[in-house]
Specification:
Shape: globular
Strand content: 5-15%
Structural class: alpha+beta
Number of helices: 15
Radius of gyration: 25 Å
Distance between the termini: 105 Å
Helix content: 40-55%
Number of strands: 14
Strand order of the largest sheet: 1-5-6-4-3-2
């Protein structure tokens, strides 16, 4: 009986193909081009190069085109990370920083490449947001801590990745924000001190690998930790009005029950204890700032709150206002310093994505509530709420978080 030829599930050509594919995958995985460190360093270099430029010229804010531009240099089309960035109206932003009392030389030094870094546990390594400052030459924090002043050497570089947010931010928000910031230096909107842009088409943008647009804003949490003698004693909260639905958690069930409970709890009523005159200033400032946001159709913003132990060496009589033209908010028992700001003011209900969510997702949300899920919640999302209504809910949340002696007597 003739022998039958042995049949292997893998012939030589198949094995060679498998080895080639594995080798290619390993090459792609381990090549510097795909590493987070490579992307981080390229991003830092690009940001530092742009922000170190003098801010003497340029008072016209850039307006993004309807469609992204195409570079005349074909090599720019193949760029994966960190396209060349341009400061947006640098002289105009410098004028705003001067109104705020920010030292220009020290500000620029905060964006030297060694001073830009990831956040704790690698946070921000993908370039979504990076942390800058203080520069190595900065010797002032200890004196400022003793005086109870915030240290203006901590900044966040936040990328703008969603097109509908980016276009609204550059074309609508900034033209209104610049004059508002100059005329209201004590505003509690988190300070945007610079913006950078690149509106050209490149491979990294099309593939979602990197962003060409950034805003620079004050880093209140790092400043509060620098102010405190022990950073572990600093508490911080990022709060939005409760009772709204969340697409990723309520609709498709993502997020643990513990996360949902924490989000709903926020902070306890009366966590912030202020003197009556300080609360009156906070209340009127928030009313003015939120009216400014509502007039632009902005929703979905949050309250950032930090609470730091008052340094033992601090004397309240030394300084009634910090260098940011805002009162130093100290608890009546001289135990804590508070810092508050409105953050995430990037979404306008009038842009296309919130409109899409309103027209498509709202009917689904009503069905979800009919099924018995998300009881007691509004069927709206924070980004689809009416700006005036969201403003009222936000102010109500702030009022509940703050207690005063006068409130206690009511």
């Amino acid at each position: 009986m003739p022998e039958l030829p042995s049949v292997s599930p893998f012939d030589n050509s198949t094995l060679a193909t498998a080895i080639s594919v594995a080798a290619l995958a390993a090459l792609i995985h381990y090549t510097p081009l795909s590493s987070n460190d490579y992307k981080l360093q390229k991003t830092i270099k690009s940001l530092s190069a742009a922000l170190s430029q003098p801010s003497d010229d340029g008072k016209d804010l850039v307006q993004p085109a309807t469609y992204r531009q195409i570079s005349l240099n074909p090599l720019e089309w193949l760029r994966l990370y960190a396209p060349p960035l341009t400061l947006n109206a640098p002289a105009l932003f410098r004028q705003v920083r001067e109104v705020w009392g920010i030292d220009e030389e020290l500000y620029k030094a905060c964006f030297e490449a060694p001073a830009i870094r990831q956040g704790p546990n690698g946070k921000g390594g993908g370039g979504e947001f990076l942390f800058a400052g203080p520069p190595a030459s900065h010797k002032d924090p200890e004196r400022r801590r003793k005086e109870g002043k915030m240290d203006d050497t901590h900044w966040i570089l936040k990328s703008l990745t969603r097109e509908f947010e980016t276009k609204f931010f550059f074309s609508t928000f900034l033209p209104a924000y610049i004059p508002y910031a100059k005329s209201h230096p004590s505003s509690l909107l988190v300070r945007c001190s610079d913006t950078l842009y690149n509106f050209e088409v490149y491979l990294g943008h099309l593939g979602g690998l990197s962003s060409g647009n950034y805003m620079v804003m004050e880093d209140l949490i790092s400043r509060a930790r620098a102010l405190s003698e022990d950073s572990e004693d600093v508490d911080d909260w990022d709060l939005k009005p409760g009772g709204y639905m969340h697409p990723e958690k309520d609709t498709i069930g993502l997020g643990s029950d513990e996360e949902k409970e924490d989000e709903e709890e926020g902070i306890k009523d009366g966590t912030v204890w202020l003197r009556e005159d300080d609360w009156e200033w906070v209340r009127t400032t928030f009313e003015r700032d939120t009216q400014f946001l509502a007039d632009l159709g902005i929703v979905d913003y949050s309250l950032l709150l930090t609470r730091s132990p008052l340094p033992a060496s601090y004397s309240p009589e030394e300084e009634s206002q910090d260098e940011r033209n805002r009162p130093v908010l100290i608890s009546p028992d001289n135990k804590y310093i508070y810092h508050l700001a409105i953050i995430d003011y990037m979404i306008s209900k009038h842009t296309w994505f919130p409109q899409l969510m309103e027209n498509i997702a709202h009917p689904l949300n009503k069905k979800i509530q009919d099924w018995g899920r998300c009881e007691g919640k509004k069927w709206r999302y924070t980004m689809t709420e009416e700006p005036g209504t969201y403003r009222k809910e936000f102010l109500k949340m702030v009022s509940k978080a703050v207690r005063t002696d006068a409130k206690a007597e009511e």
